[in-house]
Amino acid sequence: MSKDLLTTLEMLRPTDAVTTEFWPEKVQDAARTRIMATENNIGATKTPRRQVGALVLVAAICAAVVVGCAAATAMMPKPFTDMYSGWQTMPGTNGGIDPSTAERVGSIPGPDGSLFSVFVAHGEDGWRCVAPVFEPSADVDKIGPSKFTSLGHGCRSNDDLYGADSFGGGAGYEAGPHEATYDAGAGGAVRAELHTADGNIYPTILAEDRFYGWIPLSLTFPRPTLVGYAADGTVVGTR
Question: Domain span at residue 40?
């Protein structure tokens, strides 16, 4: 047998008689027509199946990545959930309140470039827990802080107004090393400011029908005045 591959293939090629017997001319013509129609897009729309599959796969991967990233960024930092883990076993809350569901409802400037922020988590039957903190200003765009100073916290139900129905009602006060924090019932006020004796004005945060705020400890005497305002700017009360 010849070692020339072309010669060998030529020898293996079926004769015209064999080709005609097993592949008639009409069948050959029909096959050629189908091949040409597919190649030249005759009579049918050519669908880029492989490209569509690739796009679907890429979209699925992107969706998985986005969901994964969202889930990662939506997790409350462990130091926060550890600090308020007691909410989960709070008596009377019907299963407790999960601190990982807390949301930052407001922030105002705090001491030394920090922020004074208030976080609220809700549970069953109107129960909620509130936690004011000092946190780094860089954390304001995050779901919660990893490093913060807890300024106390409290949980109550809808039945426990704790003075929220009157302006300044149920006022609480806590002194730290250099700052004092407080909270007071909102009553009919939608905004409040703390006016100190030396003329400084400090804003507050309205959360769950109470105003929360802070001032430097050095300004707590003479006693400052909390002023509440209605939506139209009129004063509704002082404390």
Answer: 5-73
